[in-house]
Amino acid sequence: MPKKQKLIIGIAGASGAVYGIRLLEACNEIGIETHLVISKAAEITILHETKTSASEVKKLATKSYKAADIGAAIASGSFQNAGMVIAPCSIRSMSEIATGTTGSLLTRAADVALKERRRLVLMLRETPLHSGHLRNLALLSDLGAIIAPPVPAFYTHPKTIDDIVNQSVGRVLDLMEIDNEITKRWSGLKDDN
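Request: output the structure for the sequence above.
Response:
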């Protein structure tokens, strides 16, 4: 019998907490085991942007960990998993990961994903970017991270914010090679003639 797939999900303090929440919901719908870590700043952002508490979000995960728990299972390369998604990813978290100066479980787990050559997808939420940000992003890409800012896909003709969020989350699941039905697939241009 195949093992249930495990995914580590991080929610950093950048705007866009809805991406991490929807990713957890989608994984539940698909049957993916999730291991969640939420930064201190993300706890504030979640409440501000969604009127949901961090404790309610943690209930969506199979297992959740405190950001200060650097001894947690997900801090070790021996913890088997399919990889990690940080949704959203703040510039601070991205910078810690790029420089290897991990100060929390969130950035330590991401660093472990890189060193173990597992997938690491960062849904970076910041604009504009200066040259220091861009250098760190290029370094992370060189190390194997996938930088996937949640950019709306307008070819899907979204009608709601949920449509936009679902498309971005579905694309991230694609990057993690997790089959999903929430992504609207491009089928080519329609010839009206």
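The mean pLDDT is 95.
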